[in-house]
């Protein structure tokens, strides 16, 4: 049972050392999904001294982490940041929480463990947005290189699992596969037959760059050990004895700059300031680079506290501007989640895993209206860009947003990528479909609330701000509901119970759907883009080498650099991105 039974003491540096008597080549702010990959790769060279500073603790024996069937059990516990989200006016002013992992391994310790990469054109679009060399083909060897895929058993194949061998790696650190608790019996056959009768094809393996269809997907887990495979278990525990790799518990607050640094030329970091687990403010120096891997909700806050961001915003907080970079904390793209449910004539064993997913494109969602919708939405891009720019204070200009929206429009209507995900969750006496629009046009932000509140950011996703997002979510909802009206699923379900016919009758209008969605949608916890890898003119924060514009030795490696949403779940792409970033840092890519 790899990584679970070791007794490990992480290094808490004495005050004297923390104040500068010990230095490192690289300091990584954040020991989460991406940061631990980078730490693993850099420390493989014994001559390179690497330090990881992570606010969370080592949770390798926490059952809320290790369980492969305990998704949601960690929410609102000590390993969940459970951030408050700004009341969303577009969702009737409702309060909500954004869940994010607070542990070594980051959100990989509390997520749903889904291992899905997405559609190839979505990664190719990164290159179009000003990032030469960032495309699907370039990322592919990193997707497969980090993976150690577990070939399904005969029983798992009988329970609906299929795969394409060339889509998976078997030599990487990250163990993936399907759990032994995978639901067997006939339900997966009824589920698959329903989608097939609806008109959606079976996708033998969604990890090859074309995700459309229905399938049973792999997860980040060690099947034989029956434990979750989080980033710490995969990339830290096996190498934690390296003498040149240290991990300490603390919260990085800001990057420290060398004296004389100004916004005229690229400024150089000399280290970081952080809060220790006991609340002391300490500093450490970095001989080569500071790498921010604190995630899409925290890396922008570190930049702002360091004087990198929009000058007017920084001035309000009393922070001296070191680099004028308005895109910091902007371009937040999150996916609003919705659900419908039916009572059902269904009996299932307790704890059965049901990774049943379907992905649909615009043609699936809108049918004969797709061509006219493509034309009308293209004509609306400028208006949406102006609206969203204004809603975010004009920090990222409408012209820049319109250029990004044009790329996104082409993905949806030109490249035919998937734009809706529907997960089916059967349970004792009930079946639900949970889904979300994959490529929303709405853009929000995350910023510092105050210089003393890095753990309490202002998170404002601005869900459903763009009216096309409402249209996508409505189309997705209608597909999700039509699934239950299709045989053989229609023979299993009994009654529409959530939200029910009173709110959504069978012939519900667009207005009824919109009202229901605005009253119930919530976070999907897939936020990205807040330190986007795009050209500076488009509101980007990092360049193609992931260096923060205006700095010589500060990089960001986490979800915040991904400039557009992807149809897969974030985890697989984050591991690949971090692996490639490590090669860039070491000069091997």
TrEMBL record:
Keywords assigned by UniProt, alphabetized: FAD, Flavoprotein, Oxidoreductase, Signal
Co-factor requirement: FAD
Residue ranges that the Swiss-Prot or TrEMBL entry lists as coiled coil: none
Signal sequence interval, chain numbering: 1-20
GO MF annotation terms: flavin adenine dinucleotide binding; oxidoreductase activity, acting on CH-OH group of donors
Active site, per annotation: 526, 569
Pfam families with a match to the protein in the record: GMC_oxred_C, GMC_oxred_N
Residue stretches making up the Glucose-methanol-choline oxidoreductase N-terminal domain: 101-124, 295-309
Binding site for FAD: 33-34, 107, 252
Signal found in the keyword field: yes
Family classification: Belongs to the GMC oxidoreductase family.
This protein's name: Glucose-methanol-choline oxidoreductase N-terminal domain-containing protein
Organism listed in the record: Neoarthrinium moseri
Classification lineage: Eukaryota, Fungi, Dikarya, Ascomycota, Pezizomycotina
């Amino acid at each position: 049972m790899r990584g679970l039974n070791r007794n490990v003491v992480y290094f808490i540096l004495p005050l004297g050392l923390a104040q500068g008597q010990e230095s490192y080549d690289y300091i990584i702010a954040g020991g989460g999904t991406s940061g631990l990959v980078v730490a693993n790769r850099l420390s493989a060279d014994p001559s390179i001294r690497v330090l990881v500073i992570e606010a969370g603790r080592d949770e390798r024996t926490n059952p809320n982490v290790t369980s492969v069937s305990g998704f949601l059990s960690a929410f609102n516990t000590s390993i969940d940041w459970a951030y408050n989200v700004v009341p969303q006016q577009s969702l009737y002013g409702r309060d909500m929480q954004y869940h994010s992992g607070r542990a070594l391994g980051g959100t990989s310790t509390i997520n749903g463990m889904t291992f899905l990469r997405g559609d190839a054109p979505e990664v190719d679009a990164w290159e179009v947005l000003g990032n030469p060399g960032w495309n699907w083909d370039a990322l592919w060897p990193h997707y497969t290189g980090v993976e150690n895929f577990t070939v399904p058993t005969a029983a798992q194949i009988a329970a609906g699992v299929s795969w394409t061998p060339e889509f998976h790696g078997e030599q990487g650190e990250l163990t993936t596969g399907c759990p032994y608790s995978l639901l067997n019996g006939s339900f997966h056959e009824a589920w698959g037959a329903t989608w097939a009768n609806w008109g959606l094809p079976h996708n033998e393996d969604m990890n090859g760059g074309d995700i459309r269809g229905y399938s049973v997907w792999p997860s980040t887990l060690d099947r034989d050990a029956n434990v979750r495979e989080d980033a710490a278990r995969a990339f830290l525990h096996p190498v934690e004895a390296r003498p040149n790799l240290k991990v300490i518990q603390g919260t990085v607050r800001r990057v420290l700059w060398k004296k004389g640094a100004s916004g005229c030329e690229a400024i150089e970091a000399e280290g970081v300031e952080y809060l220790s687990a006991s609340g002391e403010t300490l500093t450490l120096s970095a001989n080569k680079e500071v790498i921010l891997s604190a995630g899409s909700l925290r890396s922008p806050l570190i930049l702002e506290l360091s004087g990198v961001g929009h000058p007017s915003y920084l001035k309000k907080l009393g922070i001296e501007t070191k680099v004028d970079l308005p895109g910091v904390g902007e371009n937040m793209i999150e996916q609003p989640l919705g659900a419908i449910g039916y009572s059902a004539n269904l009996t299932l064993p307790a704890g059965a895993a049901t990774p049943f997913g379907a992905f649909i494109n615009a043609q699936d969602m809108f049918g004969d209206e797709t061509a006219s919708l493509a034309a009308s939405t293209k004509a609306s891009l400028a208006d949406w860009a102006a609206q969203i720019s204004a809603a975010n204070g004009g920090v990222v200009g409408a012209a820049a947003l319109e250029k990004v929206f044009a790329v996104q429009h082409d993905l949806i209507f030109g490249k035919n990528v998937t734009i809706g995900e529907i997960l089916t969750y059967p349970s004792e006496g009930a079946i639900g479909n949970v889904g979300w629009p994959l490529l929303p046009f709405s853009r929000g932000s995350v910023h510092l609330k105050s210089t003393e509140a890095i753990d309490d950011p202002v998170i404002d996703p601005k869900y459903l701000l763009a009216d096309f997002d409402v249209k996508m979510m409505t189309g997705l909802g209608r597909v999700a509901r039509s699934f239950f009206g299709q045989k053989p699923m229609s023979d299993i379900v009994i009654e529409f119970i959530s939200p029910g016919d009173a709110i959504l009758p069978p012939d519900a209008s667009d207005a009824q759907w919109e009202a229901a969605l605005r009253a119930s949608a919530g976070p999907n916890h897939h936020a990205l883009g807040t330190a986007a890898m795009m050209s500076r003119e488009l509101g980007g924060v990092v360049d193609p080498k992931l260096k923060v514009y205006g700095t010589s030795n500060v990089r960001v490696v986490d979800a915040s650099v991904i400039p557009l949403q992807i149809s897969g779940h974030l985890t697989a792409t984050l591991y690949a991105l971090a692996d490639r970033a490590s090669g860039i840092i070491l000069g091997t890519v």
